[in-house]
Amino acid sequence: MTSNGQQPAAAVSLYPELDEAALAQVVEALRTGDTSRLAPARAAEVTEARKAATFLDGVGVPGDGGVELDAALWLHNGPGPHPLIVMPSPWAKQGWTVYAIQALRFARRGYHVLAYTARGFGESGGEVEVAGEADIADGIRALDYLIAQAGGPGAIGRIGFLGDSYGSGISQLVAAEDSRVHAVVALSTWGDLGEAFYENDTRHVAAVQTLLNAAKTARLSARTQQAFDDVLANRNVAETLRWAASRSPYHRVDKLNRRQVPVLFANAWHETLFPTNQTLKMFNALSGPKRLLLSVGDHSGPEMTGILGLPNRIWQDAHRWFDHHLLEAADEGSEAEAAAVFDADSGAEDQVVSEIMWSRTLESRPSWHAATGDPERFYLTGPAEGAQDGGLLDKPGNGWRTTFTTGTDTPATVADAILLTGYAELAGLPKTYRTGRIDRNDAGVWSSAPLPSRHQLRGVPRLRVTVAPSAPDSTFVAYLFDVNALGIARIITHAPYTVRDGDPDAPVTVDIALQATGYDVRAGHRLMLVLDSVDPFYGPAAQPPGAITVTSPDEDPSYLELPLS
């Protein structure tokens, strides 16, 4: 039972398509050399890995404060020095085994590798501290251990940290604090944990509950449990934000920048645990070599096939990143020279790689600025005569008011379920919405005319809107949809927003950054903006049922600004 008296839900996995049995078979084959239970290609891979590197599992790594961390070790057998990779585990009971196949591939390539289970999970000791100081110290101790096993500082090459999900945040934080780390790969990661938990003053309750459920078999510290319970109970917000700041790479970015640490990020457009914008903020704050891979799907979904050993462009890029910054850079002199060589080899256009919905086309651009379209405004207007919905037009149409009641959910939602809706997207089955079923009493709706040409959205859409909530604290969610001629929609992006400590029924103008997107809207389709007050993904402000009135003052019209390329 949680500290607020609620019964926790059943355990869930942040890796719903992970084949644990298949990974266990790979680990057993690495241990014993018996590959009879593996498919031929995997058997050959394991056999070659055993020739190239010595594998040890069940390794006890001394962590911070006497905690022992369960780990696996791959020591390359060829003449060195060899670069090192440390891989802190995801937020999962399976611990380091999630990395088994990719770690053996690094080992075959010429790396010494240590993959370990974060404290509080699986067979590791200690309690879960959510990338706290003990986790950072664990990462540093794990690196110390790997260096010692590899023959000491004089016998090793350059050093990288790689993590997926939970391990990605730990990897960035260790790199910020330990000057021995030369490069980082952070998959399905976070930059600002406070923003991930409280986006626009709105609690991400479904994300926090999912993290709690996924850690049901873990051992959470009292402080960790308190932080999660406080988000769910809507209390101690300032205290929780301070707790989150110390666990956020964004708040240590200056340390990474001083050493120009190369960092590769990968995230999904419809990420529901760590929304894209907070990672984008971290990416843009970095001044050293960096790359951002944005994909269709949800948390850890785009890289899942690679975890299972199948071809995967994200893991291929991770290998390439380390090969350039660890293997090849060892022969290039200074870190600045190594970065220059990498950029010359890869092309500066590779800094941002976006997988576009729904063509799945890959677009490479030299920077986030270059990847972002030019802003074009669609002004919110009142409904035409005889119509229910307002318009999205190229000129303001002021003097109108649209009011919807609060406290009732509508079919406009972020997704059907965290993770699972994103996995359906990966399979080419994005969630569809019947826009005619959105009750206009419970939502404000604005639609464009059918678009005369394809509109390519690239970047962060922004909404400036004047609202007058009937309660001092009031939450609403803005959704942007792509709607076909039959009224069937797909979600492009969204964002929640909470107005706090306002005067009831007093208008307030707010600016909302919707989550970044790479989306193509076909010619003949319409854009639809929906505002409603309830979404299962978010915790509303403490408010009685009431209403929100949307207006567009003459001196400051309401508009939706889309980045179009």
Describe the structure.
The protein has 565 residues and is α+β, with helices and mostly antiparallel strands. The chain folds into 2 domains: 20-336, Alpha/Beta hydrolase fold, catalytic domain (Rossmann fold, 3-Layer(aba) Sandwich), CATH 3.40.50.1820; 373-564, Jelly Rolls, CATH 2.60.120. 28% of the residues lie in helices and 28% in strands. The chain is built from 16 helices and 26 strands. Strands 13, 14, 15, 16, 17, 19, 20, 21, 22, 24, 25 and 26 form a 12-stranded mixed β-sheet that branches. Helix 2 (40-52) packs across helix 3 (100-109), helix 4 packs across helix 5 and helix 7 (205-214) runs antiparallel to helix 8. It is elongated and about 80 Å long.
Main traits of this protein?
Jelly Rolls; ten-stranded mixed β-sheet; Rossmann fold; alpha+beta; twelve-stranded mixed β-sheet; disordered N terminus
Q: Would you summarize the structure shown here?
A:
This protein is α+β, with helices and mostly antiparallel strands and 565 residues long. 28% of the residues lie in helices and 28% in strands. The longest helix has 17 residues.
